[in-house]
Amino acid sequence: MWPLVRSVLFLLDAEHAHELTIGAIAAAPRAWGSLFTAAIGSVPSKPSRPFGVELANPIGLAAGLDKDGRAALFWPALGFGFVEVGTVTAHAQPGNERPRLFRLPDDRALINRMGFNNHGSQALADRLRALKDAGRWPRVPLGANIGKSKLTPNEDAAQDYVTSVTRLRGLADWFTVNVSSPNTPGLRDLQDKDVLARLLPAVKAAAGDTPVLLKLAPDLEDDAIGAAVDLAVEHGFAGVVATNTTITRTGLRTDPGQAGGLSGAPLRPLARAKIAVALKAAAGRIPIVGAGGVSEPEHARDLLALGCCAVQVYTGLIYEGPGLPARLVRAL
Asked: N or C terminus of the chain: which is more exposed, having fewer CB within 10 Å?
């Protein structure tokens, strides 16, 4: 069934198809959730508590698919054990000019240069507070991925992150500090050791008791990954997410001729290699959440066997369909 639905959606511009899908789900998340629960069936429970948050199972939705948390109530119906919304920024922003999302079907990949388009962290806080007040919180943990606003200079980045964390504190179950998207000018400069040493303690202090994770790019040198992991440990972060999208184009069959972050199957070898580096640097001191090119049960099993505490999925969901999370959990 999904190949047919996918073929129809792929007739549309990628971002337009995404907006239609999220819009339809957001209009009736519980109804869609009930429909998919009936179609997919029950998903085994496999609880764990790797970064101070009790996950229903180790398969999670990565940030980027539901930037503003509009479909937060729906994602657990697919079998996800945890959900990360965002990336949100302190200031609402439109992101980069369209077109900015591109499919590479022959490579089972996506390229995006969205540029953190979102309605701002205050809008997300209002949405999450309304869900909590109405007793409609998702039945799995929900985290918020936080980025820097484009208009904020890097020297003021810490305050920008702190603003979003302060607004969402007490609502999100954890925060992920995103300094690794390639689509906001200068953002990846925040992965520099000296810059991180100023940014991380400010965010940690603002988060209070809420766990904070750090998300890293796969394009970092191994020494830089090790240094970032050490800083995350030093400043009391609860975990590291490895990895984000890549600006490399190694192994592509398609020549897209488009700038932006590459995700999906071609990212997997690079992501796995950098995840291994992060795990070695962590040496059991801090958990690592693996992400990058996961679309089959063996991919998830491989990352968990490598030492990851959990795995996140995004692009695989686009190509494999909404049954993917449940299939991954059952295979575990």
From this structure: N
